[in-house]
Amino acid sequence: MTTPAERTKAVVDTRDVLEMLANAEEVTIRGLVQSVAICLLRHYPLNVDLDVSASALPGVWTHPSAERPDAQAASTRVVSWFATRTDK
Length: 88
What we know:
- α1 packs antiparallel against α2.
- The protein is an all-alpha fold.
- It has four helices and no strands.
């Protein structure tokens, strides 16, 4: 079971990784992004957690949408962003 401290740390750490990736000139270590993502997602909030948070703090959160029709397209775009010369 994920504790509030673990969930908060996952959100903060994810922001840090995204900022690092946004500022990186290139990603050269194969599998690094996937390994870090797996670690961060372990305690990342689920939709049920966001729904509860949205009910308690409507000025901070909103209820997550039930469907994500673009989820596959988004993951495909992310994979292509991190392709390296050796991946081709």
